[in-house]
């Protein structure tokens, strides 16, 4: 585990972008409104970039539909959807999904190293923690 972390820290220095899936923090678990139908518009932007296509669930008036295609991105991720037929007037469009973010290590912040657990009899068994800050950056 520590070898993997060390390798990542050595690779991702300065302005090297890291693709981070958020460990659940970047997931939209409750459907959010992404638009409203007007009877003619078929393309709708999502509020986030890098949305995993396979995770997206799109709702029209609260009912999950599959009458849309992903736009933008690389086929695995997207930032826009296109309906095969335009949603009707005032038809609410919602979505929930998982996404990833391009991040960089925040090197301006001081690293914080703390002892999380102190073993009195054998200090080598103490547990230390290091706090690192990831900053989301534009694609």
Write the layout of secondary structure elements.
Blueprint: H1 2-11, E1 18-20, E2 28-36, E3 43-45, E4 51-52, E5 57-60, E6 63-65, E7 68-71, E8 77-78, E9 80-83, E10 92-97, E11 101-105, E12 112-117, E13 127-131, E14 134-136
Antiparallel strand pairs: 1-11, 2-10, 3-9, 4-8, 5-6, 5-10, 7-9, 11-14, 12-13
Overall description:
The chain has two domains: 2-20 and 103-136, no CATH class; 27-99, no CATH class. 7% of the residues lie in helices and 42% in strands. It contains one helix and 14 strands. It has one helix at 2-11; strands at residues 18-20, 28-36, 43-45, 51-52, 57-60, 63-65, 68-71, 77-78, 80-83, 92-97, 101-105, 112-117, 127-131, 134-136.
* Main pleated sheet: 4 strands, antiparallel
Number of domains: 2
Which bin fits the share of residues in helices? Answer: under 10%
What's the helix-strand series? HEEEEEEEEEEEEEE
Q: Termini, distance in Å?
A: 28 Å
The coarse silhouette is elongated
Query: How many DSSP-defined strands?
Result: 14
Order of strands across the biggest sheet? 2-10-5-6
SS content category: mainly beta
Radius of gyration from CA coordinates: 21 Å
Number of helices: 1
Please tell me the overall pLDDT: 85
Model regions low in confidence, pLDDT < 50 over at least 5 residues: none
Q: What share of residues are in beta strands?
A: 35-45%
């Amino acid at each position: 585990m520590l070898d993997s972390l060390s390798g990542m820290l050595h690779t991702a220095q300065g302005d090297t972008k890291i693709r981070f899936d958020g460990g659940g923090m970047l997931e939209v678990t409750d459907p959010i409104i992404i638009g409203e139908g007007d009877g003619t518009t078929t393309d709708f932007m999502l509020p986030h970039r890098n949305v995993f296509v396979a995770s997206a669930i799109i709702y029209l008036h609260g009912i999950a539909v599959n009458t849309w295609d992903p736009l933008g991105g690389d086929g695995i991720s997207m930032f826009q959807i296109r309906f095969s037929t335009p949603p009707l007037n005032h038809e609410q469009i919602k979505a929930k999904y998982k996404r990833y973010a391009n991040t960089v290590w925040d090197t301006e912040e001081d690293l914080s190293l703390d002892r999380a657990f102190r073993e009195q009899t054998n200090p080598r068994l103490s547990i230390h923690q290091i706090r690192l800050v990831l900053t989301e950056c534009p694609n």
